[in-house]
Amino acid sequence: MPTKKSAPRWLNPREMKAWRSYIMTARRLAEALDGDLDIHDLSLADYEVLALLSDAQDRSMRMSELAETAMLSKSRLSHRMKVMEKSGWVKRQPCAEDRRGSWAVMTERGWKTIVKAAPDHTESIRNRFIDHLTVKDQEDLARIFDRVHSQLRQQYVAEQEIN
């Protein structure tokens, strides 16, 4: 039986300004950071996966855990891994405990790539973002986006359970 949809909750001018400021800045910032990694033949998505693996024990993670941590669908992560495997930055290894699962493992080449790119990426983050914020701005943004991220993670996990 069809259910009645409630009326849209349109954004008021303050909400619209906040949203548009965020979305336009987030898109442009991601594009700029992505472009700044071109000199390392890395995309921002590649860098993020390598960063997660570099922080993991033995520089490896279960594919399912990596997908959940990065909040990527399994198919999107699988595609990303194919690209990164071709570059020699990662490899997949079967999981001995669960034959259906596999591990994403950073290679020595992947490690060298992120170590080389990290100083430039950090400088790019500083120049394009951090240096334009006060300490209070940084604290406020961390608090705000921790809250939003927590809600998004809960939604992501719930959606993955449905799929």
Structure, explained:
By secondary structure, the chain is mainly alpha-helical. It folds into 2 domains: 31-132, Arc Repressor Mutant, subunit A, CATH 1.10.10; 133-163. It has helices spanning 13-36, 44-55, 63-70, 74-86, 108-128, 135-162; strands at residues 60-62, 90-94, 102-106. A hairpin with a 7-residue loop joins strand 2 (90-94) and strand 3. Helix 1 crosses helix 5 (108-128). The model has no long low-confidence stretch (mean pLDDT 92).
Please sum up the structure shown.
The protein is mostly helical and 163 residues long. It has helices at 13-36, 44-55, 63-70, 74-86, 108-128, 135-162; strands at residues 60-62, 90-94, 102-106. The protein contains six helices and three strands; from the N terminus they run H-H-E-H-H-E-E-H-H.
CATH fold topology of the largest domain: Arc Repressor Mutant, subunit A
- Tell me the name of the CATH class of the largest domain: Mainly Alpha
What number is the mean pLDDT?
92
Strand portion? 5-15%
Structural domain tally: 2
Shape: globular
Q: Find the structural class using helix and strand composition.
A: mainly alpha
Number of helices: 6
Order of helices and strands: HHEHHEEHH
Detail the poorly predicted runs: none
Outline the biggest β-sheet.
3 strands, antiparallel
CA-CA gap between termini: 23 Å
Into which percent range does the helicity of residues fall?
A: 55-70%
Oligomer: single chain
Please provide the count of β strands.
Answer: 3
Q: What CATH architecture of the largest domain do you see? A: Orthogonal Bundle
